[in-house]
Specification:
The chain has 93 residues and is an all-alpha fold. The chain has a single domain, classed as lambda repressor-like DNA-binding domains (434 Repressor (Amino-terminal Domain)), CATH 1.10.260. The chain has five helices and no strands. The longest helix has 25 residues.
Length: 93
């Protein structure tokens, strides 16, 4: 069970980092991204803060304002996930 919790933490970390990085690269605010994606700004804040997990529908709403495809997002997400895994992995005793 502990292993699953770590995986969820890693996924939340990766999504949070990834979406923030892509938003900054697109040069748009969190509020503007939420507006253009048709999401509530507070929900966008929770997504970017790693508090909520996105649905596939939400992901696809985010891609056009960010100017990316699912494939581009997946590649970026993999890089963020590797970084988060290094951070969250605890040394084995």
């Amino acid at each position: 069970m502990a292993h699953t919790a770590v995986q969820e933490e890693e996924l939340a970390c990766a999504f949070s980092q990834c979406i923030r990085k892509l938003r900054h690269e697109a040069g748009i605010s969190q509020e503007r991204l939420a507006l253009e994606a048709g999401l509530d700004r507070s929900h966008m804040g929770r997504l970017e803060g790693g508090k909520n997990s996105p649905t596939l529908e939400t992901l696809y709403k985010l891609f056009p304002p960010l100017g990316i495809s699912f494939t581009q997002f997946a590649a970026e997400f993999e890089g963020c996930l590797r970084k988060c895994r290094r951070r969250t992995r605890k040394p084995e005793a």
